[in-house]
Amino acid sequence: MQQAELLNAAVHETEIRMTAAQAIVLMESCGDMHETKRVGAVAKVLPQLTSVKEAQNLVKRVLSTSERFSLRIRLGALYFPLLGLPTNHYALDLSKQIDRQALIKLAEVAQAEKQFSKSRSGRGGKPVWLILRYVFIDSEYAIF
Q: What residues are paired with 136 via a beta bridge?
C-alpha cells in the first residue's frame, strides 16, 4: 500500500517533471513494472514527463505493442498530444478530467507552434492562430 501511495504522491500532488529514466526508476521502486500494472503506471506518469521525446522513450522502453494500444484506450484524447501527435479530430467532454488535460496539452502545443512560427520570417499570407476553429457546444456548432 505504501508503494502505491508513493507513486500517487509523485504524480498527482506535485508539479514535478521527470525524464523517462527517472520515471522507470520511480515505477520500479513502487513495484509497478509488473505486467498487470505497467499500463496504469505509465498512464499516471506520462503527463509528468519533461518532453514529448521523453514520453516516446518511456512508452517504447516499457510497453509492448498490445500494452501501447491499451494505454491509448485508457488515455483517450490525451494519448496523441502527450506523444507529440496533436493533429487529430477531438471530441472532448470537459466534464471529464482526462479531456480537460487533453485540451490543456493541445493548447500548450498550439502556443509553442505559434511562437515558433511567429519567430520565422518570410512567411506569406496571414496565418490563423486558433487552436479551436469549429467547436460543437450543447448540440450546436460555434465558430471562434
A: 141
How far is the C-alpha of 78 from the C-alpha of 103, rounded, in Å? 8
How far apart are alpha carbons 96 and 77 in whole angstroms? 11
Which residues, other chains included, contact 120 with Cβ-Cβ below 8 Å and sequence gap of 6+?
A: none
CA–CA dist 79, 32 (Å, integer): 20
CA distance 24 to 97: 25
The domain tally of the chain equals 1
Range of the domain at 142: 1-144
> What is the grid cell recorded at 26?
520511480
Q: How far, rounded to the nearest angstrom, does the alpha carbon of residue 94 sit from its chain's CA centroid?
A: 16
Cell numbers at 113, concatenated: 507552434
pLDDT tens for the chain, 144 residues long, are: 566 676 666 666 677 889 999 989 988 888 777 777 889 889 989 988 988 999 999 999 999 999 999 999 999 999 999 998 888 888 888 888 888 888 888 888 888 777 777 666 555 556 555 555 566 666 776 655
The Cα–Cα gap between 68 and 79 comes to 10
pTM to 2 decimals?
0.73
